[in-house]
Description:
The chain is mainly alpha-helical. The protein has helices at residues 2-6, 25-30, 38-147.
Amino acid sequence: MADAILSVPESSPPKPVQEDNEIPSHILASIPKVTHGNENQENLAKDFSRISVLSNSREELLNTVQKLKKDLQDWRGQLDSQVKTYRQELGELRNTLNTGVEHLKNEFQDLRNALKKNIDAPSDVACKGREGVRTTTAETETSRETEI
């Protein structure tokens, strides 16, 4: 009785392969035709099943790789556009900074010139003042001499 449960009737064909899991024809051609023995047919059915599973796994992996490639390309595109935007902003900031620095240089030059004028002006007044004192002193001496 135990033998009856474990044995498979000879008339039962191997499990049919689903169309979406179809074994490629070059693999089927390489497998020798077995006409005798249920054991060989069972092994062949198991092999077909394993090949089918591997084929499905391969397709899933290929789909995953394609999706990852697409995601990477999209990511690169987004990254490139962000880099372009940041470079433009950096260029604008650099131009603004250069304009500000030039403005400050001009202001400092104007202040420097104004300081030089202010420093030179009192010395000019002092020189004129000294000349005025000399003139006054000389006039005083001349007037003293005339009085004598």
